[in-house]
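Two quick folds needed for the group meeting slides. Do the first one here.
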Amino acid sequence: MKKFIASVGLAAAGIASVHAAYSPDSSDNTKIWTISGTLRGFYDDNYITSPKKVGSLGFEVSPSFQLNAPFAQTEIGLRYVYGLYYYQNREHLGQNPIDQSHEFDLWIDHAFTPRWEARFEDTVTVSQEPGLGAPVGQPVNVDQRVEGNNLVNGANFSLTTDWTPEFSTKLSYGNTFVSYQNSGGTAFDPSLSGLLDRDENLVSLNFQRTLSEETMVWVGAQYGQVNYLSSEAIAVNPNTGAFYYSSSRDNRSYYGYVGASHSFLENLSGSIQAGVQYTTYTHDSNAKDALGPYGNASLTYTYASGSYASIGVTESRNATDTVAVNSNGQITQDQESTVVYGSINHPLTPKLIGTLTANYQYSIYNGGAVDNQNSDLVDLGVNLSYTFTPHLSAEAGYNFDWYTTAAALMQNYNRNRVYLGVTASY
């Protein structure tokens, strides 16, 4: 059984990214809980994520608690991370200088028998940063900082059944609930609540064949449904004067794919899943059905003790905060996104660890005045961590964000953040 570790990159101003990954069982089973606290000072040169930069010094305080409770057939874990971020410049401007964030993770693994295993995961996040709540490799739906307490809840359940030593099935269900505090918009100036509050459901079934200890292949299908929850008007048809509402972007998707995973060496493994996604829009007669690629691939290489590198790519259709009506009365429904991500973790000395992370998102808008236009989002992070004792460490880091788009209605920006901090844990 593997443990689910959610690594939150709390860099400089707000939360830079959330990375969820699996890691092997710890060799230390004597302690099931951990508490820690981080204090960082930072400088953010564009905390409003605008073409016209506004920078600020500040500090971050982030306590966290984690529990892992392994039993004979069950493992239960939970994690809570709180973040408080103070911006000096906002106080000078007479604005609220403090942002806060919350993340709560829960995971349960249970083996009913050696052939039946179930897993449940749930992550609740509340923040002002768009990256929070977006797992690694998944598209970010909002490209800029958002005021207010914005909530994302992602839950996943899976049941794996080994029918024979070579044949198994995996049944999965995922739900994503999104709610933005920014509401009360109009058809001419829609709010983020009107554009993005939604409930996403995804059901999948994989038929898996184990070819050897190193190789597994599968074929699968998925059904996805997205329902937008706000009752606000988000656009108006220039030809008829009729309003488009949030539910005008409700959609259903049908997926088919094949996949394979393989361990090339003891320290090198990878997987790939590729197929198609067909999407229909249930409440907009002007929208055209969409057919596009769907898939993901990843490769992980552990080249020394504590040293590893990983790279991956995902392709999928996702929600967007952009809605732009064209002269034919069509609105922007969603976007097709390719996300390429990677990371390197390398001990420079027994106590000094360097980490490099990178994410690139390329999105193409579907429908409306920005149809077939693209946007690019880049996130880069460098971190150095020095361990003084098992309970005390220091770190320094730099994060760079860059966003650009060919759509005339959008604004480009870049953002630089540096930070220095200490972490105590027990």
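Then this one, please, same format:
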Amino acid sequence: MNSHSIIAIVVVSGLVMLAFAKWPVTFDVPEGFYGLLYRHGRSLHRISPGRHWFWARGYTVRLVDMRKITLDIAAQHVLSADNVPLKVNAVLTYQIIQAETALHDVHDFAAHLAASVQLAVRSVISATPIEELLHQRFEIGKQLIARVEPDADHIGIIIHALEIKEIALRGELHNVHAGNKLVP
């Protein structure tokens, strides 16, 4: 066989392969996100920001926001330690650091965090008299973080901040704000 025949065979076989090959699958992972790569539903690994090409079928990517996220925690009705009825809501700032854990270990990590914060708020507020709530808001935030961090760590999330956003006296139109004053 001469070199022209070998080249012709290589070119023809390449064309045949291209004719039967499928177009590549591309995934774009934006900055601030990671992609979790799956093949036929099986988790493979994390992919970094950028464009990724795969020549085989069956690949999917799930994007995970790795930036800081702020979550408003719905207001709930709680009695303080001295039986004052309150309506309390909080705000949580968190960041996913282990995308695989956050997505694979719980069904909905944001709902899991919100429930954990609500339970912590209920525990801390119900053990604290109203006077302390007015004067020790930052210490209460630290207590809340201490209660929520173990749950968050378990699912690959770090807590940056957790604070009481507002405390309202239930049944009245008064609010307790950061200035520790009752405002009509």
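Slide caption for protein two: Residues 3-20 form the longest helix (18 residues).
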